[in-house]
Amino acid sequence: MQPHTMTLPGDAAEYVVTQHYDQYSDVEHGTWKTLYERRMEQLSTHACKEYLEGLRVLGMRAERMPVISDINKTLQTRTNWMLLPVSGFLPGRTFFDLLAARVFPVTTYIRKPDSLDYTPEPDIFHDIFGHVPMHAHKVFADYLQAFAQIARQITNDADQERLGRLFWYTVEFGLIREGSDVKMYGSGVISSVKEGDNVVHRGCKIHDFSLEEVLDTHVKVDELQPTLFAIENFEQIYEATKEARKVFGV
Ligand SMILES: [Fe+2]
């Protein structure tokens, strides 16, 4: 199914755009290539094996920006997730309604060559290179939906903020143990040189994942992460959503 033929939840349809692939310039493809190659220098040894496998099976490559409809063909067969091109940030409720339906909104534009390290809003590099390879992993894919099913039921600000920390310290900044190593799977560490270096050079503390501690750990959005959490396996965070249901009474 293509995004335009499906029934979208809530007001999501208002945000849908088309990826005009033939309108990307050589400069934009070049920016993708620079970002991709720069991150792979570190990720080939410091990203988790599930992320690297996702990158491979989804056919992503440095030379060209990704074609969303091509990724969808593989992703739908593998984990029944679908990417939906959107104009930018979505309201929280819309975002989680989509995720609960296994639809992941992605932007189609790419940052400018003079601001490779900083994009005020998510762009296609963060959204697709950073997030989407993990969506090809069955347990992570189920975790993301389970998280969203909880998030969309929470309406008070304090609980939304607390639950948001689980998203932040897993989907955005998650780490995982592989033997005696710690590897990256969260899009924030995957897509950012500075955040990646902060993990590799141990600028941050790395704690074992605990739902209780994650929910109590404030999020820092404007500085390098001081504390991150390493899971043992993806089943651990899937199981944590069952615990989170009890914590938040949903
Ligand atoms: Fe993100």
TrEMBL record:
Q: Which UniProt keywords apply?
A: Iron, Metal-binding, Monooxygenase, Oxidoreductase
Task: Provide the residue positions that the database annotates as binding Fe cation.
Answer: 126, 131, 172
InterPro entries xrefs: ArAA_hydroxylase, ArAA_hydroxylase_Fe/CU_BS, ArAA_hydroxylase_sf, Aro-AA_hydroxylase_C_sf, Aromatic-AA_hydroxylase_C
PROSITE patterns referenced in this protein's UniProt entry, alphabetically: BH4_AAA_HYDROXYL_1, BH4_AAA_HYDROXYL_2
Q: Could you say which EC number(s) this protein's record lists? A: 1.14.16.1
Which stretches make up the Biopterin-dependent aromatic amino acid hydroxylase family profile domain?
Answer: 1-250
Pfam short name (any one)? Biopterin_H
**Recorded coiled-coil stretches:** none
Can you tell me where the transmembrane regions are? none
The name on file for this protein is Phenylalanine 4-hydroxylase
